[in-house]
Design goal:
With 463 residues, this protein is of the alpha/beta class. 39% of the residues lie in helices and 21% in strands. Strands 1, 2, 3, 4, 5, 14, 15, 16 and 17 form a 9-stranded mixed beta sheet that branches. Helix 8 packs parallel to helix 9. It is globular.
Length: 463
Amino acid sequence: MADLVVRDGYIMTLDGERPRMEKGSVLVQDGRVSSIVTDESHPSELDSAVRSVDARGRLIMPGLVNAHTHLAGCVFRGLLDDWTYPSSGLHALAFPMELELTRDDYYWLSLLGAIETVRAGSTTISDMYHHSETAAQAAHEVGLRAVIAHKVYDCDLRAVGRGDYSRSSRIRRERVGASVRLFENWHGRAGGRITCRVGAHATDTCSEDLLQQMRRMADEYGAGLHIHVAQSPAEVAHIRKMHGLSPVAYLQQLDFLRPDVEVVHLTEASGEDLDILQREGATYAHCAPRYGRSGKYPPLKEAHLDRAIPTGFGTDWLRMDMWDGMRQTASNMSLSSGEGGLLSARDLLHLCTQGAARVLGMEDELGVLRPGAAADMILIDLDRPKLQPFFGTAQNVVFHVDGGDVDGVIVAGEEIVREGRCLHVDEAEVLRQVQKRIPRFLQILERLYPAHRALTGKNLLAD
Ligand SMILES: [Zn+2]
């Protein structure tokens, strides 16, 4: 007897080359898809399932996999959106403000980010941030599948914008300690729904010795690594000055790069860097919403299409809507290459499902609906004028669905969103907790003004 049946919808399995869509039901047992019934030939099996989700008028498809997030980074919404490349917003505002927030702030902001994430149709995230245990807790409560990493570095992030990378053994001890606690408390929790990775923040904010320690930790835990690489000219300049190498070549020299390493951004990566990543088998998380306005586009075509480096999409931190990211990528790729249609809708869907699952080493489990795969799926309400006529093509999905069209979400066979609302957390309370913090967040911003002006010559809230 099945634990759950998701019944009488239109199913897009994303299994195989075509985004096959058929009318039918998905049966779930022990958190996994047990069978996909595309006609009514097994009515007794459907009727005998313990629980049932009505999917009439809904598209049932695999949940999206978001390969790079900072859930609590939603605090910078409306503050960093205008900040363009290279990285003054990061150095002048984000890094110092992140250190002023409390553990409770991270908890409530992570819950807000997790709610936004699932309501927009992602069922898995790969997160790296401060107070990472709060992100694990938030993912656990909301019902998300999550790969959590602690943000480890060993310099004062407030000083990096001035080019001061002085190493601190105290910061290193604290950060590594928190990473170990994260693994002890969360790795494999919630029936395996929450796992951990080792999070090295970036090639410049971690010393050589710390990067090597992180690599050893990952080997000991048998877990992967998550790291921002070649994300800004400042990072590239620092690594070149210290080691005479690009960030990617430096990581290779440290024997850091393996197939279990997720590198994020690569905005400044060269063709030789991509050759190295391809040889070492490292994977790439590309965060489309971040790049378009910056005027500097990472080499997605060269990484994904030319070299077949395993690639998946992430959102980074200000918005968690993967649909928006797919469409931005389609435009960004065409504009940056001068060539239209380089990525098809099917490719874009792949990058947000099995492609991103591959980045996390979970390609057999996630991003596809077939017997044996995780029962992670989303229901899209097709009875909306903007989605009709719906022909069941990848183009229908990629170019016309928005996060707000996601009506139901199921993770590991558990229904976590129904009629667009999270079932297991009090959304109103999360909003209240975040809103009541806004005055204090503004006080922190005001305290940061002098340092901010010194770095940027701008007035933060004047624009
Ligand atoms: Zn990031």
